[in-house]
Amino acid sequence: MTTLLLIPGLVSDARVWRAVAQAAPEWLEVVDADIRRDTTIEEMAARLLHETEVPLIPVGHSLGGRVAMELARQAPERVRGLVLANTGHDGMGENEAPKRLAKIARGYEDMAALAAEWLPPMLAEGIPPDPALVDDLTDMVLKAGPDIHARQIRAIMERPNAMEYIADIACPVLLITGAQDSWSPEKQHREIADKLAITEVHIIEGAGHFMPVERPAETVAAITGWLDQHKEELNV
Questions:
Q1: Does the keyword Hydrolase apply (predicted)?
Q2: Residue 30: left if φ>0, alpha if ψ -120 to 50, beta else—which one?
Q3: Helices (H) and strands (E) in the chain, counts
């Protein structure tokens, strides 16, 4: 049985993909991935491959999307398809490190303050956020805590440049992002799509970087529709 491997992003947990998990087709086994224990994206992918034994369809959000691409690089024979949501492809920028290190320091100083500063730009600009959603995301960040935050930020700093290998990915790929995602915009996803053999790009209106929880119904429709469309290729 093929496994739908749901991979959350930075300081995130299973609640990011909760709606997709609940709506997944019956021909798939659903597994929530844990990427909080390793210090590099390569190690995160290697652990997930070790912990699972069946063919995979990784579904990755943000940092999780980078882990999903790394899974396809490390074990192309096991990855039947990929869903990459609100993600990126580049290596670390020239002036990025000081900003990342400052975020790590801020987390150890006051995780609640970090959440209050970090979350608003992650949501769709110009659309009043749902207070219950903001509370849920804040709880998620606080439960992750400063150690996991620091570990994952360092993994992001050491991330591989996916553009160096993404053209080798031969399986079907769905790229999906929010129209108001300023962190991982549509342009970034189309740059990935241009390198892929079998791909589809889906843009969800009214969603920012946390698209899977901002617009869960639309996200579910896009992903389950793609899964059904490619069922014969994915369920082998």
A1: yes
A2: beta
A3: 10, 6
Contacts of 175 (CB under 8 A, 6+ apart): 84, 85, 189, 190, 192, 193, 199, 200, 201, 202
Tens-of-pLDDT digits for all 236 residues of the chain?
999 999 999 999 999 999 999 999 999 999 999 999 999 999 999 999 999 988 999 999 999 999 999 999 999 999 999 999 999 998 888 889 999 999 999 999 999 999 999 999 999 998 888 999 999 999 999 999 999 999 999 999 999 999 999 999 999 999 999 999 999 999 999 999 999 988 999 999 999 999 999 999 999 999 999 999 999 888 76
Tokens of 129: 């956020």
Distances (CA, A) of 170 to 6, 48, 164, 198: 20, 20, 14, 7
Q: What is the CATH number of domain 2-92+157-234?
A: 3.40.50.1820
| 103-115: burial string, b at 16+ Cβ within 10 Å, e else | bbebbeeebeebb
What's the predicted TM-score (pTM) here? 0.96
Domain locations along the chain? 2-92+157-234
Phi first, then psi: what are they for 41, rounded to 5°? Answer: -65, -35
Tell me the two tokens of residue 29: 């086994």
Q: Are 61 and 8 within 8 A, CB to CB? A: yes
Q: Minimal CA–CA distance to 83: which of 144, 187, 3, 179?
A: 3
